Structure formats: structure tokens, C-alpha cells
Amino acid sequence: MVKFFVGLDVGATNVRVNFFETQGNKLGTTIVFPFKQCRTATEEVESNICKPIEHIVQENQLDIKGMQGIGMSVAANFDRKTGDVVKWPNNGLWNGFKLSSYLENKYRIPIIMEDDANCAALGEFIMGSAAGLRNFVYITVSTGIGCGLILNGDLYTGNNGWAGEIGHVVMRKDGPICKCGVRGCLQSMASGPAILRRTKELAKNAGISIDECYKLEQVFEYPEEVAPYLEQSCREAAEYLSELISKLIMILDISDVILGGGVTRAGSVFMEPLNRILKDYAHCSGRKVTLKLAQLGDNSGTIGAVNLIYKHLNNGDDIKTIY
Amino acid sequence: MVKFFVGLDVGATNVRVNFFETQGNKLGTTIVFPFKQCRTATEEVESNICKPIEHIVQENQLDIKGMQGIGMSVAANFDRKTGDVVKWPNNGLWNGFKLSSYLENKYRIPIIMEDDANCAALGEFIMGSAAGLRNFVYITVSTGIGCGLILNGDLYTGNNGWAGEIGHVVMRKDGPICKCGVRGCLQSMASGPAILRRTKELAKNAGISIDECYKLEQVFEYPEEVAPYLEQSCREAAEYLSELISKLIMILDISDVILGGGVTRAGSVFMEPLNRILKDYAHCSGRKVTLKLAQLGDNSGTIGAVNLIYKHLNNGDDIKTIY
């Protein structure tokens, strides 16, 4: 019987699953399932976690009894002691659901949960852009701004698992109100929605309406006349982000920053000013900085998650495998 | 023959030495020697490091052959691979001196060097205000502003040993010029000399000259008429420091801050606004923070230093002793 463990990335839109056999080699590719909404959390867990796992088990002619453990990347806040979901901002149905116990009881195997940005950081560390680095910061700029810290070659999560919450570092006390209720958080000034809002504002001031764009991605595709406003809003966002990253570099003596998330797909309009401004900041403080794009894309979370369970079952060793 | 190791704190004004026997118990109290200036670095090392050690060896009827290793807290920048002093801002004579090799060759024992703020953090962790904490930040506000980070129960030093250099995080781009040449570093706005400069400026604007004060400590003793200006400058410094600490808390998910350094001796004029403003920041971001004064005072550095060598010789274990 083949022994294996499972990496899961549970998001509000998609669930990603991959399988690794116990030597650390990957079994097949990461498979993506669209998240299926149901009436109860239990039904959603059955439908979006258990069924996909059992489907892959069957497809690969594995035996479910060979499953040694599950590592899970979750976008929700959870209790690190119990594995209960505290709050999933994108799906209130799961609030309070005893996710970890449910799966533990069902499969009688260890379950490990971790924050999505932390899992992505781990994934990039194991076999992505950050392979071989001892200290680095992974930042995802998307609907929110998340961050994972690898320090001394290990994931650093802090007292409550909240380390790296850079999205809610206050950058300007008089900045826009953030979803969290505080003014001027980085997220309210440099995330995808923040860049979109600012682009719309700048365009509107110039008499151009792009109100029909409800996602930043739509602006990327937009005609030339909007380009200068997108450029300016990306430059402003890059300035705030660079300011924060430069502080991270100074505080943590890190020189590598791995960048992921949908906003990086804007390409040079965002990446060029970010690179330039960040290098300026680093130069001023006499520090070096290397900005790299995440390599594993949307798969970093499942790979990080599977590493957590591998580590748990292998005396704290990370997966050392050829991907 | 009693086996023991030595903790040293080499500062520009004083050298502090303590001895621990190999079980981790302290042999006598920490002894302070004033730093004696000589013509060469070698003479200064002999006079300020070797002689004090040999003096204590004799006083305690120990045998120098029982010395197993030296841990050293240094205020200088040094090369972590070679143990050479790169630059000691307060004593140029030592720049380039192969300090670690010199002592290794002389005593044929391992020598471990560490930054002074890092050693102080370690000292407070081993047997001071931070005993039992897994994650905390130690901040010293003095002539400069230094910081040591204990993360996951271990000293975190970063890629080059520069982690925690919060004194040179830029707080205001239009702030005063710092000694490092950059504008608006925290150190230029919240250190002892910065508070002194600002108090003088405020007093001067009100027609009072306190130019004869060349150290902040002198202002603490000053007559009532200066009190409002000292209060204001301390409040301003506390605001900058709180702003930075609140970012540290958010980034590292830490809730304990240990404060040391001469400026804390100003007492409530500095500590009261710092506590209040910091709690306000933490409250806004929904985080908890506990601000404690360092407990070991000027001895934290030697105790941290001795722990480094203890750890080196004891498979990575920290000293567990009753002080």
C-alpha cells in the first residue's frame, strides 16, 4: 500500500489539492476544484475537501488507508490550539466550525493548518524562488496584502500565528479607511482594490469614467487613455509598499523579497516602480535587496501545506525533493 | 580544577566581567573595570580584557586552564565569520583588530562575539524581565537606539547580524539628520541626545537657555522651569518610538517589549507617555502589548554573552540557573 500525504489550499473560489508520497515525491500535478457552496459548513467541508481527496485517491488507484496526514492552507483565521475556524471573512458559514477535529475524526490522521500567506512562503522556500534562502519575506499583493516570514530557515508565526500581518500596518494616519476599520493601513493604499479605487479617482478627475471596472485586472486590459492614471496609482502603491518593505529589511536584516499575488500580473506598470523605489530605499540605508517574483504561482500554498505535514511526520525536516 | 567560562561586556567607558562555572551557576558578582586607554589596540585588549580576566581568576583562586570559553558583548561592528572588529565608532583604534583570533590564540579556547543590544536581550531572556517568553523585543534607548529580537525562543540576528537596527529606520523623511547621514532615523528623534536637543530648542524658543547641559541626565535634575519642555520632548520621542514599536508588534506578532538604556532613568516623564501612546497604538490594531523595564540593568550584556558561550559548549541549550 502506497503511503502518502495531502496538501490542501482552501480558498473561497477554488480548492487546490496535491498528493505527495512519504519520501517527499509529488504524486501527479496539483488539481483545482471550484469551491462548491452548500447549506451547511459540514456539507461544504464534505463537498470541497473530502470528496476531492477521495476522488484523487480513486483516480490514482491509492488506498485511503495509506493517507498519513493532511496539511491545509486556509484563508480563514483559526485557533492554533484547537484547529477550529474562528472567522472566515469570505465565508461566514465556517465561522466556529471545528475543521481540524472534523477531519481528524473522519480519517484518524494528523491535520495541520496554516495561514495562506505563510503556506505560500513555505512553498516558495521548499521549491520555489526562495529555495536555499535562510531568511526572506514573501509578500502577496492581491485583494488583501499578506506576508509570510521565513527566519532562520523556518516559518515564523509569532505569539498567535499573526506574524507578517503587514496589510494592517498603518502607513498614513490620514489615509483611506481600511476594511478593518483603521485609517491608512497598507492594504487600503497598495492592494488591488486600493489601486483600482485610486485609478478610478484619478481618471474621474480627468473626466474619464471607468466605473464599469470592478476588478483591477480589467484596468490592465483598458485602452491607452487610462494608462497614465494606472501608472500613477501603481507608482503610489509601490511607494507605500517599498516604504514598508524597507522597514522590514532594516528590522529583520533580510535581503530577499519574494512577491506573489494577482497585482504582480499587472507587469512592469507595477513591478518597475516597485523595483526602482525599493532599490532607492535600500540604497539610502546601505542595505541590499533582491525582489523576485514567486515561482510556483497558485500552487505555492498546497506545496507549503504539504511540507507542514511532512515536517510534522519527519522529525521537523523539510521536504527535500525534485519537484 | 574548577571549569568555568567568562562573560564580557566591552564598552567604551566600562568593561564588565562575570564568571560562570560550567553548570551555569554564577561565580561571584559582575565586576566593572573602567576602560583604560592605551597606545595600541593590542595594549588596550591586554589591559581591558586579559588583565581583568586574570585578576578575577586570581581573586577567586581559580586556574586559568579551567577557562572553557569567552562570550563577548561588543558595541562595535564585527565580522561574524572572522571575529575581526570592522568598526568601533567610539574607539577607532580597534578598527580592523582581529579580536577573536587574538584571544583564541592566547587562551586556546572558543570565543563568541555578539552585538551589545543582542546580548542584553539574551541576558533579559535568560534571567531578567523576559524570562520564560518565547518571542519578545528588547529595546535600549540611550545615546543610540538598539534592539535585540528573541524569536521562537532564540536570538534572531538576520543575514549579517544586523537584525533589529531600529535606530536607523526612517520615521520622517524630513526629520533631523542622523549621525548615519540619513534624515529622520528613529535615533535622530527619540534617543537621549535627540531628546536633549529638542528640549534645548523648546526652552530656547521660550527664552530659557540650558546650553550648559551636555547630557540628558543633567536635564532630569534641572529646575522646574525646564520641566514643560522636557515633558514635551519626551512625549514627542515616545510618539516616534511607539509608532515604530507598533509596527514591530504587527509584523512579528509580539506582545512583550522590554525597555532598557539610560533614557528609561528619566522615569515617568518618559515612561508614562510611552506606555500611554503605545497602548493607544496597540488598541487601534487590536493587539495587546506589555511594556516592561529591563531587570538586569547594566549586567544584561555580560549575562547574555556568557549564555552564548554556554550554549556553544552545551549543544545549543540556554543556561538554566538560579541567578
TrEMBL record, chains A, B:
Originating organism: Ruminiclostridium papyrosolvens C7
InterPro entries in the cross-refs: ATPase_NBD, ROK, ROK_cs
Family the entry assigns: Belongs to the ROK (NagC/XylR) family.
Identification of the protein by name: ROK family transcriptional regulator
PROSITE patterns, A to Z: ROK (PS01125)
SUPFAM superfamilies cross-referenced by the UniProt entry: Actin-like ATPase domain
Entry's transmembrane regions: none
